[in-house]
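Lecture 7 notes: from sequence to structure.

We start with a single chain of 326 residues. Read the sequence below before looking at the structure.
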Amino acid sequence: MAIIGAGLSGLACATTLAARGAQVAVIDKGRVPGGRLSTRASAFGSFDHGAQYFTVQHHRFEAAVQGWQSAGIAAPWAGRLLAYDQGRVSEKTLSATRFVGRGGMQAIARHLAAGLGCEQGRRVARVERRSGRWHLIDDAAQEVSVRGFDVLVLAMPSPQAAELAREHTPLARTMAAVEWAPCWAGMLALARPSLTPFDGAFLNDNPVLSWVARDSSKPERAPAPGVAERWVLHAGPQWSKGQLEVDAPEAEQQLLRAFAGQIERDLVPAHLAAHRWRFAAPVNPLKQDFLWDDDVKLGATGDWCNGPRVEGAYLSGLAMAEALLA
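Now the structure, written as tokens:
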């Protein structure tokens, strides 16, 4: 079987299937596995510019996180967190235990992908159903496998899944009905400490930013020469939607000004970059763990099926795999 997408849902699905002896091919357009479970490397250090952390609610996910901790892949983040809302500041540090990947969120994706033989850097442009098998054609018009696959799982944001599936299953309409919020993410390195009283903050009343985090305060974030702190700045969904098509340098400057205004400091960046997440979070996720069309043997999985959280992505991929094994 084939899984398109090596984000957390796709990796959870693939590792569960492979552990039970299934033959799984994972194809992903990214240079490295992880999707939004992503860490950007730079000469100024690394930045978790996608998923910031994860919490645990479900016992199935708790078991996975305990395994990651035992393997030295994940650890709690003990940073101080605040919330700014309508002029009030509240403490959020103890509201939940927040976990991160050691050295970067992408460590979790690398751990799961090890041994799977994921084919990275290959974008599947279309899929075809011929003689009861799925054939995947990349954007260079080359088939991924001439033999094809008996089962196809789409593990990607729902608009992309709908585009591939729309000629093959009515479930494509369900996929397309899920709306998404975008997010501009800023990556900021400072040569001098910012003197902020927090390591992360929910900015509920900031017109530009919704979240900021001192990324260098997370476990095992290696220091970089001449860098005192590294910050990730996430813009809110409304601002990101309105500024979605601006050039990255313009987005960078607006994010920097918003952060400087929030903490009331003059900031001189040693490094500043921005990344545009077009599909950052599902607005109206489905109430089911995954989608499955048994007539054509096509499934779909992701946090848009089971809630816009790291845990939701993992549990969706796990449920998809278990349904296939059953």
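Residues 248-263 form the longest helix (16 residues). Keep this in mind for problem set 3.
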